[in-house]
Write a structure and sequence with these properties.
Layout (H helix, E strand, L loop, with lengths): L2 H6 L8 H11 L2 H7 L34 E3 L5 H13 L3 E5 L5 H15 L3 H4 L11 E4 L14 E8 L10 H4 L2 H22 L6 H4 L6 E8 L9 E6 L5 E6 L5 E8 L2 E6 L7 E5 L1 H6 L9 E4 L8 E8 L7 E2 L16 E2 H11 L19
Helix pairs in contact: 4-8
Amino acid sequence: MSTTEAAAEMSLDGYDRRRELQAFDDSKAGVKGLVDAGVTSIPAIFRHPPESLPQEVITSPSPTTEAGIPVIDLSAACREEVVDRVRAAAETVGFFQLVNHGLSEELMAAMLAAVRRFNEQPMEAKRPYYTRDVASKVRYNSNFDLFLSPAASWRDTIFCDVVPEPPPPEALPEPLRDVILEYGDAVRKLAPRVFELLSEALGLASNHLKEMGLVESLNIVSHYYPPCPEPHLTLGTSGHTDPAFLAILLQDAMGGLQVHVDHGGGRRGWVDVPPLPGALIVNIGDLLQLVSNGRFRSVEHRVLANKNTDTPRVSVASFFDARVTMRRYGPIKELTSSEPPLYKSVTVQELLACFYGKGLERRPRLDYFKLEQHTPM
């Protein structure tokens, strides 16, 4: 850190933010450790600026309204209708809830319970997994961008790279050992079906996206959001888009996920993604927006701090990002015959470097990879 940066971390009243961040990280106890210690107010490092906190009118439209998050039945008889609904969702809100997807409710419940058990172990059992080394296949920490973001968020996370080379069972935390690889296998079997629908929604052959290698890498990111004593001052996860092709999210019944949608007429606002029993949430990532040449939208989303007084919120996000290949991904040729390409070709590693280098930010990440557009004379 430069002298200038260090000075910026020190406020006029002598508060040393960098030191508090380091002390929190060194404890390896995460946000759950603060809650277990009985904090009644959140530390200053978690306080978000007022302009980033919920202030807009939050709407919770029904799934049938234009501003809502569509619910799509994967078992519907008419495939053309399913493709049309997937296309409409991917081109507008970038999210949809998927039902009758083939994952058993027992497996989904077991996965959520395992994440809860891991986080509710004594600190001594979790500390061996605490690391910020992104090369580690299993890593537990609080806020991957702790030292980059303007404010920390009220959550802890355990990451697991499960495809193409899963960690050996003995490297997995005991609470997750019997379920996470089974869950990952089930999600990976579902993903090609979703990519087929998305391919057809783009007017391509059903296997087009799969043949691009988009299911060859799977990272499971499990979040634990403890109850927050001052939820109006912080967030569970700040607004961001996902640096992947696709995310498939399992959330519990607590709620809190919100998507920033276009209401038309220049109006934008946050809408809830209500928990739907048995459903999985699918969202378009930055890389899919890039290869679709902007046809599909990677939309900003966030999670509110948990205002429940005694129950944590748990979610499990499965990211398909093809990070194992050095292939360059650009707008698909068939989609640029009538419109010029909007984005540069990039490797997944380049996009992830941008993500890890800048942390969660509201600026669209693809802005860094846009091509300069020339207006004809």
